[in-house]
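<tokenise_the_fold>
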Amino acid sequence: MKTKILFTSLLLFICFFSVNCSGAVINVGPGTSFSPAGSDDQDVINAAIQSANSGDTVQLASTTFHISSPIIMKSGVTLNGNGIGATVIYCDNPSSNFATQNIIVCEGISDIEISNFLIDGGWESFSIMHAASNRYREYEKGVYLSGCSDVLIHDLKMQYSMGDFIFCKKNTSNVQVYNTVCKPGHDSFDAWSAGDGISIFNNCWGTFINSCIKVHNTKNVQICRNTFYSDAGSGNAGVEVMGGDVTGLNINKNIFSTLQLNTIYHDPADGACSGEGTVSNNVFYNSPAYNGITGMDIASAGNTVTRAYSSSRGTKDYGYVAENGAGNLPVYNGSAKPSVTFPAKGSIISTVNGYISVSWTYLNATSYSINVYNSTSKFDSSHLIYSLNTSQTSANVPVSYNGQFVVKIGAHDDVHDSWIYSSPHLFTLSGKKSATVYSGVYGYLTDSTTGQPVQSAVVTLSNGTWNYTQITDVDGLYQFTVNSEKGTYNSGKNAYCLTASATGYLNSPELPVNMTGINTEMNLKMTQAPDYCEPHYVQLYVSTDSNERIYGCEVQIYAPGNDPVNEKPNFYAWTNKEGKANFHLTQGITYKIVTINLDGKKYTSSVTPDLDHYTIKIPSGDTSSIPLTRDVISTNCTYKRINNTAAYINASYYDSSSQSSNLTFVLGTISDGITFVPSGISGTNDRVSNPAGMVTDSFIVTDYPGKTYTVKITAQSKTYGTISEDVNVSFPASNIPYAGFNMSHFCILILIIAGLILSKTRKAH
């Protein structure tokens, strides 16, 4: 009996005093058994890694580790520091020690994490580094991955290194890289025949002689929310596609800043490339224009290009043009200050009807601000008498007293999300006057949206035999003196007609004026004319001859100059269950429309979108053969723990009919069991214009134990219209162990055995 008790006690001791059941932390650094000696510290780091079990963390202390040969990673191990700058891995004598070696080597392993430290290549400066032999650029890579899977790299920085920062090859898949900063001597990131599933988001990438990111023969590479920049060097390109099948390439919401050679491009010297991808919602700032990727089918939309300088190759950026011919207007980037055009600086003016008009230069900004002060030296809230944010370049300011005033104009820098202000502009108010109105017709022209006056507009009064014109003043006032003739619009030679036109506005229709021999007031509201960058949404409904709405119909839109025989529409979508499809079209342009019903029959029509909705009627089609949604659409959500406070939620969508478009993932929660509330947490792949195959998105959540999240997955299906699925992910209340058999399972097994032994002992008594 004593033997049994002793054995049971031993089992319990092993259970409760063994290393952390959910993964041990192995400390490396001063004061630990793995203590760096100041040189060849890779030996103590590698010893710690080799001693680790799957799920363990090798924790590097806040110190500088001097290494002279590579650090070798192992499956299931996390290599973590105490932060960029706090923990440093420094390469001693790189011209000899690392001439043919990488810094961190990962070969044929899986489920690893590398985070929170600085890698210093040891070259001290760019000038020293680039005076070295060219062969070093092919080596000394920061993190080398070959044949790896399930890799997480984040919160790293690399500096003064000749090689690439992160290099993936030989079917390395499922790699996520975020929160990293790098400006190496060669490339920042390489995916070279790396397999499938590379997510690169929220990083700052620089380069000196080559490209920030290179992609070769690798599928489903997601490049989102990164900043690409360069300030010196001969390379300075953003994303380079180097050939092979790169299906699923998604370049979204990035900023390409001050690159010299290219932003996104294909180098034909590296072979032909193929596949489908998207380039959307990026900002190209002071960089060459993106001109497409040869051999790829690229869907591009929403990109913005600033006015830029001549690059080192003599290319100029005149604004991005997408594959479908739609252009994006360059935006204001803060390169010029706004200035006041009226009143003149230092001038003396009078109020008109209790107002003064202030106007300023147009800088293509989305928003302007005007601030008027009654002091010439103090520009604070106590001296501010008028303030307005507006999209216009003029404003009427109410002022009731004479004196000296100062106006300051601000323009919003849309590239840097900041305000640029003019210098203080002084003027003097002295006197008041009223707009003189004579016998005839008069009125004010105002913007129909903002209510601001439209100045310098041309107003024409005519009666069929003569016409007079007037130019509106700063208050938008026009006035005509007309003899005491009386007439109406339908009374022959005395029928008066009024029209107005102004730059940037739609011409007003001909308005009849009933002249009564006294002053006639006619105030006109003018609507801004949309240009190619300001189309409006048009709803197209498809119905049968009997007015039955048809869903699942394909609607193709062809712009002028594009013939449907090319079978490459400028826009396309499928009608939803209401028979509706939305398009962003420009007013005044006649588009050709090809509607394809569920039987595959085509019908051609046209539309000039001056209204907000139109109905297209086609003959009835047989809809009985439409399969159930669940037969072709599948969604799923899983989770994976990062640590005790953070976890991944991984969502997937698949359409076996390959007819989806406009796929979105939104993370949120369900309030009161009914209402979906977005969490505001962005994923790695929230929006995909033309999904191909299985499409995934990944969200990082914190303080997750016991919580339930919902991922709303929405797509536009050719067969079903809009499809929306809510998929729930629930976390247990306790921390989630890593998958697979680990020490925690062993502990539980020991407890069960101990319980059985104690039970038998108790029964024997």
